[in-house]
Amino acid sequence: MLPFDDTTRTELDAAAFRQLLKHLDDHKKVQNIDLMILADFCRNCLSKWLVAAAEEKGLALDYETAREYVYGMPYNDWKALYQAPATPEQLDALDAIQRNKKADT
Fold first, then answer.
1. What is the spatial distance between Cα 96 and Cα 7, in angstroms, rounded to a whole number?
2. Are 59 and 65 contacting, i.e. CB atoms less than 8 angstroms apart?
3. How many CA atoms lie within 13 A of 86 on its CB side?
4. Which of 43, 50, 42 is nearest to 13 (CA)?
5. Residues 18-46: pLDDT tens digits?
6. 3 state SS for the chain
7. Considering only the top CATH level, what class is 6-104?
8. Does the global pTM surpass 0.85?
């Protein structure tokens, strides 16, 4: 746990999250499927987590608005500009991870 009060910790968390979004924006070549394979999350997960965090605070935030924030543009625009088709190897790796998750439950 960080040795700071809750407000300071929240500010640091927010700054780190903004830096993560900038890093992902600067590295658009990193595909969501690569993130899912390596880290079990992607840009869409971040969007869903934002929506859930807003709901916990009693705030309304729809998924598409959250996605636009995370992607820095409408998702369909980002997808058209930067999303490459998944390779068979990527699909196999993701499928293996998902099978392992099901086996663990």
1. 41
2. no
3. 14
4. 50
5. 999 999 999 999 999 999 999 999 999 99
6. CCCCCHHHHHHHHHHHHHHHHHHHHHCCCCCHHHHHHHHCCCHHHHHHHHHHHHHHCCCCCCHHHHHHHHHCCCHHHHHHHHCCCCCHHHHHHHHHHHHHHHHHC
7. mainly alpha
8. yes
